[in-house]
């Protein structure tokens, strides 16, 4: 119930304005978002890489209906890719992109514009020796995002996809994407979705995650196991053994600021461990989804809000 309410608020313009205008709970934001500028993203990347972890950078933003904003987001990605290259970090850090931040939701032209914009980011990533992964958003965009992925992979086969285990369709999508060279990030899913398309019960989502993971680990692609859940991590390790996967043929991924000790532990035992690092000013939707996953953080957040 609380999770559903927080996910609804994640899309509320009025609450967004209230929360982002108040100098509220900076510590909580900072826990999940290392900063707003390119230099903050690069600095966080440098620290993580020095500590044996890999990185994927997300310039925060989503649901834009403004072509200028979409263009500014592309420019931010091009800038950070260049900065990573100059700092010698491009081999250890890639970027994650939300198509809705680069124009997908614009009426009439959205599909074409976001594909063109994604191509520009993929080209820049390729030029500095790294890759792009397309984040997955709510279920109304899944088909369009997978169609864009197919187009991009014609020229940039290294482009990664994200699939969400809470959707009923995802086991089939995993089968379709478990081919050689295909990089697929499997997560549980972070949006408020109706029962017609998504499992509502956490236990059902977990069971779906395991089925999807099995398909990906048994397949020919490169699975990216994106979860903080200790059980899912153990099961991923068991599948890696069962399907004879050599180290480096799959990786674990977690979000910046969540279970950092477990991130370090996995890296220390020789696993590829990538940290998703969001940065930028548009942290509201991202933060609300993190609160929805961990309502215990909410008390801290509300207390800070009320004390303003
Ligand atoms: P959960 O069952 O939520 O959590 C398991 C355990 O992890 C908890 O018991 C707790 O110990 C710890 N934990 C989880 N969340 C928190 C938190 N906020 N604070 C502190 N501890 C916590 N979702 C999408 O819909 N689209 C995407 O493109 C996408 N990309 C992602 C990329 C990466 C690298 C990761 C790690 C996640 C991504 N997600 C995405 C989010 C994902 O769908 C889940 O919402 C999120 O990862 C929480 O699910 P979980 O697997 O960690 O399991």
TrEMBL record:
Gene3D superfamilies: 3.20.20.220. Its EC number is 1.5.5.2. It is an enzyme of class 1 (oxidoreductase). Substrate binds at residues 98, 289-290. Pathway: Amino-acid degradation; L-proline degradation into L-glutamate; L-glutamate from L-proline: step 1/2. Residues 43-300 form the Proline dehydrogenase domain. It holds the Pfam family Pro_dh. The keyword DNA-binding does not apply. GO terms for molecular function: nucleotide binding; proline dehydrogenase activity. One of its GO terms (biological process) is L-proline catabolic process to L-glutamate. FAD binds at residues 136, 164, 188-190, 227-228. It catalyses: L-proline + a quinone = (S)-1-pyrroline-5-carboxylate + a quinol + H(+). Its cofactor is FAD. Binds 1 FAD per subunit. PANTHER family: PROLINE DEHYDROGENASE 1, MITOCHONDRIAL, PROLINE OXIDASE. This is proline dehydrogenase. It comes from Nocardioides pocheonensis.
């Amino acid at each position: 119930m609380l999770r559903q309410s927080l996910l609804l608020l994640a899309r509320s313009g009025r609450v967004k304005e209230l929360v982002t205008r108040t100098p509220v709970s900076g510590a909580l934001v900072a826990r999940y978002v290392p900063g707003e500028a390119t230099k903050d993203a690069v600095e966080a990347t440098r620290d993580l890489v020095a500590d044996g972890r890999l990185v994927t950078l997300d310039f925060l933003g989503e649901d834009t209906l403004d072509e200028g904003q979409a263009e500014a987001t592309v420019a931010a990605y091009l800038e950070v890719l260049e900065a990573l290259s100059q700092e010698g970090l491009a081999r250890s850090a890639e970027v994650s992109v939300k198509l809705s931040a680069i124009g997908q939701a614009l009426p009439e032209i959205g599909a074409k514009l976001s594909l063109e914009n994604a191509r520009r980011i993929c080209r820049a990533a390729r030029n500095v020796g790294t890759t792009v992964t397309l984040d997955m958003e709510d279920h109304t965009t899944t088909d369009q995002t997978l169609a864009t992925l197919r187009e991009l992979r014609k020229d940039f086969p290294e482009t990664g996809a994200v699939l969400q285990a809470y959707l009923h369709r995802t086991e089939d999508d995993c089968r379709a994407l478990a081919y050689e060279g295909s990089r697929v990030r499997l997560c549980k899913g972070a949006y408020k979705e109706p029962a017609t398309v998504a499992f509502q019960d956490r236990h059902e989502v977990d069971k779906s995650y395991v089925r999807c993971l099995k398909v990906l680990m048994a397949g020919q692609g490169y699975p990216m196991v994106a979860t903080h859940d200790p059980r899912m991590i153990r099961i991923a390790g068991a599948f890696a053994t069962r399907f004879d996967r050599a180290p480096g043929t799959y990786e674990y991924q977690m979000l910046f600021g969540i279970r950092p000790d477990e991130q370090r532990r996995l890296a220390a035992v020789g696993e590829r461990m990538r940290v998703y690092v969001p940065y930028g000013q548009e942290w509201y939707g991202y933060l609300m989804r993190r609160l929805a996953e961990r309502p215990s953080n909410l008390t801290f957040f509300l207390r800070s809000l009320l004390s303003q």
